[in-house]
Amino acid sequence: MDLLDILGPMRIFGEKNATVDLKINFIAPHNLNPVRSTQQVEITPHYTLDNAPKMDFFVIPGGMGARVYAEKKDVIKKIKARVEEATWCMSICTGAGILAKTGLVDGFNMTTNKAAFEWPVSLGPNVNWIKRARWVQDGKFVSSSGVSAGIDAALYILSEWTSFAHADVIATKIEYSWHTDANDDPFADKYPYTRG
């Protein structure tokens, strides 16, 4: 995983005054061994996909590890079951490829990291991929563009759960310049696949 993919949004949802009743659990595919992020920081999971409690909100981060797990049918099957039981599901960066691989977002609008856009698209040919978007909501699914866009999407979700004003207070508290317009995507033009 990419460290900011997971910890950026958790900074928003775990904020003391976020006023949402949310318990954050880190879940690993197979065991409770510490997981090393691409940035060499370890996170210890609380549960595996097999023994985690039911979750109303399921988050799929990206990173180079997503490419490995996209090819593991047993893991995708377990993730699919978790996504189906959730009320909300968020993918960050190339985590969109994992979500696409489940088949649950066929026909839905999604976005992903602009620098790696082609890889998730290859896993979800029946998804309506939006090339210019900081994040996209379609039904219970919210997908974000690359890495820091997960913070924008998390603030958007928090605004839906509470209010725009409340999410804006959180953004101000952490001194984050929130892209409140999902179509404000300054990175789409930087890469050939999403340009134009």
What does this structure look like?
- The chain has 196 residues and is an alpha/beta fold.
- It has a single domain, classed as 3-Layer(aba) Sandwich (Rossmann fold), CATH 3.40.50.
- The protein has 7 helices and 10 strands.
- The strands form 4 sheets. It has a 4-stranded mixed sheet.
- Helix 1 packs parallel to helix 6 and helix 6 packs across helix 7.
- It is globular, with a radius of gyration of 16 Å.
- The mean pLDDT is 94.
- It comes from Mortierella polycephala.
- This is DJ-1/PfpI domain-containing protein.
- InterPro entries: Class_I_gatase-like, DJ-1/PfpI, INH-QAR.
SS-based class:
alpha/beta
Query: What percentage of amino acids are in beta strands?
Result: 5-15%
* Highest CATH level, the class: Alpha Beta
* Strand neighbour order, sheet with most strands: 5-6-10-9
What is the alpha-carbon Rg in Å?
16 Å
Domain DJ-1/PfpI: 4-159
Pfam families: DJ-1_PfpI
Organism: Mortierella polycephala
Protein name: DJ-1/PfpI domain-containing protein
